[in-house]
Design goal:
The chain is of the alpha/beta class. The chain folds into 2 domains: about 5-180 and about 345-355, Glycogen Phosphorylase B (Rossmann fold, 3-Layer(aba) Sandwich), CATH 3.40.50.2000; about 195-345, Rossmann fold (3-Layer(aba) Sandwich), CATH 3.40.50.2000. It is about 45% helix and about 15% strand. The chain has 15 helices and 12 strands. The chain has helices at about 15-30, 45-65, 65-75, 85-95, 95-105, 115-120, 155-165, 210-215, 230-245, 260-265, 275-285, 295-305, 320-330, 330-345, 350-355, and strands at about 5-10, 35-40, 110-115, 130-135, 150-155, 175, 195-200, 220-225, 250, 265-270, 285-290, 310. Helix 11 links the parallel strand 10 and strand 11 (about 285-290). Helix 2 (about 45-65) packs across helix 3 (about 65-75). The chain is globular and about 65 Å long.
Length: about 350
């Protein structure tokens, strides 16, 4: 067998794309005869373009979510004729010259992406490598769709059906689930208090103080772990508030050991990002979903609710009521745990590897 040279691409627009790429890279690199390089596609672009593409995304979802929703829906339903997309694709070739030269020098046998930008960048480019795309949400926006992709790897049958409706051939779509890092299935929840894990996302957004305040009615019955991501101000604020609370509260910042917190939790309160949803479902953790980004995260939340593995919370005052019902009737939560684990395929990286490199 000839050696496989694999390049895995992502874009830093939401942490999930990079996390999925890392999961793939770690698995592929352990396989004999395979060399792996993981690259941020925006590192090949001019710095000003990287700033606009990445920081513009975060600005929109944090400050102007309704504008983001309009862009999402506009490009979804009028994709082929959208003026902004046509203009961007016309000028992108001049931005990514270093990327094209990198491919010429590297000569990969397999190129994969966990973000849709490389699909556009490679449009109409001659290539002699196999091109695989991992869709990291539970709905495939039209930006992911291209007849030039050799293999699509998707989270669910629903994603596959939408791709079929958008013209992708069935033989080019495989349901593998979204790649996550290996999970220690022997880890169990610690005996003791019912544990609520609250995740704010990497940026640390949302009114977590109000959520925690609402849970104080369960003092002595539950404990709370709060992850504030990269938001140090929020971490300091919640740490100070925790000292005055009747609840048992642990406040943590960004961590690469989130699986350890999953393993001791009973339920997760979180934004429904694609990777976070996948991790929680794989662990069998029911979700209370908050602050969904219009578009992709709303679709992720719909998937979870359809599979009876969680609840989309519109009013934060619902959270104590829901948790109270689970405390009163543990069978409800137990059933939801089973639904969560059954909702997603497991061993996704292995499935993708076997399909791409038989």
């Amino acid at each position: 067998m000839s050696p496989e040279k694999v390049v895995i691409l992502y874009a830093p627009c939401g942490a999930g794309h990079k996390m999925a790429a890392q999961a793939l890279a770690e698995y592929f690199s352990r396989q004999a005869g395979t060399t792996v390089a993981m690259k941020d596609i925006l590192d090949f672009a001019p710095s000003w373009y990287r700033f606009i593409y990445r920081d513009g995304y975060y600005l929109l979802i944090k400050k102007f979510p309704q504008l983001w929703s309009l862009l999402y829906q506009g490009t979804e339903h009028n994709y082929k004729n959208n003026i902004l997309i046509r203009l961007a694709r016309r000028i992108e070739n001049s931005f990514f010259g270093p990327f094209y030269r990198y491919l010429e020098l590297t000569k990969p046998t397999v190129l994969m992406t966990t973000h849709f930008l490389p699909i556009s960048v490679l449009k109409n480019k001659k290539r002699d490598f196999k091109f695989g795309v991992v869709i990291t949400d539970y709905y495939p926006h039209s930006l992911w769709v291209s007849s030039q992709v050799d293999e699509y790897f998707v989270a669910s049958g629903q994603v596959k059906q939408v791709l079929l409706q958008k013209g992708i051939q069935e033989g080019n779509i495989t349901i593998t689930g979204i790649p996550v890092k290996p999970i220690n299935k022997t880890a169990g929840r610690q005996a003791g208090l019912f544990t609520v894990l609250i995740l704010s996302g990497a940026g640390g957004v949302g009114d977590l103080s109000a959520i925690i305040k609402g849970l104080e009615i369960f003092a002595g019955k539950i404990q709370v772990i709060v992850n504030t991501g990269l938001n140090q101000k929020l971490q300091a604020k919640l740490t100070a508030e925790a000292k005055k609370s009747a609840l048992t509260i642990q406040v943590i910042g960004f961590t690469d050991k989130i699986y350890e917190y999953y393993s001791v939790s009973d339920v997760v309160v979180t934004k429904p990002g694609g990777l976070t949803v996948t991790e929680c479902l794989t662990f069998g953790l029911p979700l209370l979903m908050i602050n969904a980004i219009p578009g992709q995260e709303e679709e992720n939340a719909k998937f979870v609710e359809t599979n009876k593995a969680g609840i989309m919370v519109k009013d934060m005052r619902q959270i104590p009521e829901i948790i109270g019902s689970w405390l009163a009737e543990p069978a409800l939560l137990a059933a939801m745990r089973q639904q969560a684990q059954a909702a997603v395929p497991h061993d996704s990286s292995e499935r993708i590897y076997q399909k791409l490199i038989p």
